[in-house]
Fold this protein.
Amino acid sequence: MDLRKLKTLIDLVSESGISELEVNEGEDRVRIVNAGSSAPAGQVVYANPAPAMQAAPAPTAAVPVVAEEPVEAGFVARSPMVGTFYRAANPESANFVNIGDIVKVGQTLCIIEAMKLLNEIESEKDGVIKQILCENGQGVEFDQPLFIIA
């Protein structure tokens, strides 16, 4: 795979907000992981398949996944899908909820954009928002903690 293609893929990952992209082209395999804003825009792991007779594969670079653990005790509202987390309907709107807000069952907490669809995530419990565990525009994974409601 040529360097221009790799650069294009890295740019795609960093601009789209997705957390990971894997591309297989023939016998070449490229995996690009977006490690977040504290690291470079994307990190590339480029590997060719190992021969069948090789005793042990060489170690490959890995990006540690650090999930912020909930600090507060209470109900953990989790992401029902993979997508992009948004605290408001659009950049000019107020956030759906803030820390300290009282929420009711069925009240919209956030939006998760998945495959160009905006999905409203509703509260499953009554309570007070104690902690917001994601940043606006951050990619989220299935079952990732989003809010602590007590």
